[in-house]
């Protein structure tokens, strides 16, 4: 199939890159994006993780879900050899994941993970109100969520799964082979493959030409640009300062996570300039938010009302209001309007407060910031795990 940048002439594309968050990405990265080099990445729209697919066929599609997850979880914590009695597809995938690539720099990996922890609640706000909500602006990217009935499962569950994964992969030494973050990547890789296979086998009207293969490699890279480039831009907007080494570390962190999840590492951007240039190309094949996108966005907005972390409804309504304020501060005006984010009163006050707090937070020692941020993130995760519906990695 031949892919072309069919949406680059639309008003929405031009506004994003000339006036909106895309313009901020260009200013942050110093990139000069163009459509040159589109062919280098286009094939990734139809490329998927075949090793993960084989592992999923032998486990999640051939056993009961609990039994398969017990096998996968146990195997993720073991040193797998060629003599292992595991199903051959799962064994092959794990043998590949155990091989550390020559480019991996563990020190740089830790610098990126440290920034994720040091940012504390700011990181979680950016991930939710900028990265995750901003992703709903792209109609085709969201099709797997619609076909796997993410709306029926609820935003609380999806947010819990995402938070659990992100926290696990950003702890100290978490991505050491057989560490907790490594294990999270093993399970996530097989779950992605299972979801893709289910869509391919059960959804007859999946439009591969337009939407790419389900959970394809280019969509995955775009998602992880959200966890790196968009994440860093969001922290900057909230006055969280970081060093050049920490910035490089965040990109290195998500390159390695992408590698563990079966994405061809050669195509995963290593810096803000490359990430912006590639994101520009990817957005040229994505129409903006449709009705499904708006439903997903409002499910995320209303997650605060559905969650039972807070006992009283007024507390939940206040939390929803604060997230809406952050949506308006982090996302550009056009994206907020397309997703029908409510325009609330005094929406600049809470982000201004956060920026002021973060300015003072920089006065603490690095060690104090790390400890405080780490503990705050673990508390939020514990609250979600305690109250959310059962999720796949439980």
Question: What does this molecule look like?
Answer:
With 394 residues, the protein is mainly α. The protein has one domain (11-28, 36-48, 107-172, 185-387). It is built from 22 helices and no strands. It is globular and about 60 Å long. The mean pLDDT is 94.
Q: Shape from CA axes?
A: globular
The main pleated sheet reads as: none
Number of strands: 0
Q: Which spans of ≥5 residues are poorly predicted at pLDDT below 50?
A: none
Reading the helices and strands in chain order gives HHHHHHHHHHHHHHHHHHHHHH
Strand content: under 5%
Structural class: mainly alpha
What proportion of the residues is helical, as a percent range?
55-70%
Alpha-carbon distance between the two ends: 39 Å
Global Rg: 20 Å
- Give the count of helical stretches: 22
Whole-number count of domains: 1
Average per-residue pLDDT, rounded, comes to: 94
GO molecular function, one term: oxidoreductase activity
Domain ER-bound oxygenase mpaB/mpaB'/Rubber oxygenase catalytic: 143-342
Protein name: DUF2236 domain-containing protein
Short structural summary:
Pfam families: MPAB_Lcp_cat (PF09995). By secondary structure, this protein is mainly alpha-helical.
Architecture blueprint of SSEs:
Blueprint: H1 11-18, H2 21-29, H3 38-42, H4 50-58, H5 65-76, H6 88-98, H7 106-118, H8 121-135, H9 143-147, H10 150-153, H11 155-169, H12 180-202, H13 208-211, H14 217-237, H15 244-260, H16 272-283, H17 291-301, H18 303-306, H19 313-330, H20 333-338, H21 349-361, H22 366-387
Helix pairs in contact: 1-2, 2-16, 4-6, 4-12, 5-12, 7-15, 7-22, 8-14, 8-19, 11-12, 11-22, 14-15, 14-16
